[in-house]
Amino acid sequence: MNRTAAREQAFKLLYSLEIQHDNYEELTELYIENNEIEDAKTKEYIKNIANGVKTNEEAIQQLISENLKTGWQLERISKVNLALLKLSIYEIIYNEIPYKVGINEVIELAKKYGDNQSASFINGVLASIVKQKLEN
Questions:
Q1: What is the tally of structural domains in the chain?
Q2: What CA–CA distance (Å, rounded) separates 34 from 49?
Q3: How many helices (H) and strands (E) does the chain have?
Q4: Parent domain of 82
Q5: Phi-psi region for residue 71, left (φ > 0), alpha (ψ -120 to 50) or beta?
Q6: What is the domain-level CATH number for residue 129?
Q7: In 100-132, which positions are buried (b, 16+ CB within 10 angstroms) versus exposed (e)?
Q8: What are phi and psi of 23, to 5 degrees?
Q9: Which pTM value belongs to this model?
């Protein structure tokens, strides 16, 4: 499985975790098993994303909140968009993938899984975060 497909699987898992806040480790294993993901690198990547987002969730949510337009709150963001933002932020900041890759990949997922405004909304938030990160 290539990295783009693995990222899509990681997004789907993060989305599931947004809905069910239960034991994320158990849900991660169950997700991998139910989706018949057998490639060791893909399993490791998905687990890394799930664990990383969970471990850094407070900081990631703070970054999202700080970069929303005035009047917007975290609770107002759809679960799909929230999962996509968390995925991209984790990869860009904590896995240090090139921000252009992180943003482009998640924008494509937003077009596929989000609503009509998802891609531009996510792009705006991520662009603000990247600009803030580059200035520091």
A1: 1
A2: 18
A3: 7, 0
A4: 3-135
A5: left
A6: 1.10.940.10
A7: eebbebbbebbeebbeeebbebbeebbebbbee
A8: -60, 105
A9: 0.93
